[in-house]
Amino acid sequence: MRPIDLARRFRISPSTLRNYEAQGILPPAERTESGYRVYGETHALYVAAMQALAPGFGPDIAGEALRRVRSGDIQGALWLLKEREAALVRDKREAEQAIHAFRAAEDDRDADDPGAWRTIGEAAEATGVSRTAIRFWEREGLLRPTRDPENGYRRYGPADIRKLLLIRALRATVYSANVVRLRRTVAELDSGDTGRLREIAEETIAYMDRMNEAQAHGIYALYGLCLQLGLAETPGTVNDTDCELEDEGEEGDVHR
């Protein structure tokens, strides 16, 4: 089929198809005698897989997974996606930790003891965030620690620590407009606005739930592509081991 026909089928531009081909995501197109590209159903399968993978994994990871499929490295493609799934699980746990901290602060009036200041090193240790990241987030306007009046060093109170936990959770596995919006909202909020920060953490988890579904759909599509191309077999039919029981000795004395 012509590039324009394949592009219309997936509501993308012909230039996107050319980019996919140049990046090794699509197999090379056949050419007519006059040099025009001709795509087939195999190309359509790859485009469909790309569109299924990108929402949950981003275009870069999706493209790399399909390049691995094209090279025959099916396991490499699957493990690449599993790594991103694991990162999403990590992000979700961090968001849940932030929610727990916010709820505890709402229930405990003494949670924001002004004497409980931490240095940047202590804040990094308490949150699992590097000093470099904390300084970067401060430059980005996401965090506004106070300064020690005696020595001018940064100091972080309990509210700052909770906000750090939330910002850490917003290191989204897939960067999206939704994450950008949440980060901007966090930047505009005071660290002491515990209720609103908790709501943002809950929104973050809802976003991650949608990402989880998108990733599952993407992996399903990738394996479906491999099946259709004859690069994989239906799970359960590969390397099956028959576990037969053998009678040894007396009747009923069975060993594996």
Can you characterise this structure?
- This protein is mainly α and 256 residues long.
- The protein folds into two domains: 3-83 and 214-233, Multidrug-efflux Transporter Regulator, Chain: A, Domain 2 (Orthogonal Bundle), CATH 1.10.1660; 91-212, Multidrug-efflux Transporter Regulator, Chain: A, Domain 2 (Orthogonal Bundle).
- It is 61% helix and 5% strand.
- Strands 1-2 form a two-stranded antiparallel ribbon.
- Helix 4 (74-107) runs antiparallel to helix 7, helix 4 (74-107) packs antiparallel against helix 9 (194-228) and helix 8 runs antiparallel to helix 9 (194-228).
- The protein is elongated.
- The model is unreliable at 242-256 (pLDDT under 50).
- It comes from Paenibacillus campinasensis.
- Keywords: DNA-binding, Repressor, Transcription, Transcription regulation.
- This is MerR family DNA-binding transcriptional regulator.
- Residues 1-53, 119-173 form the HTH merR-type domain.
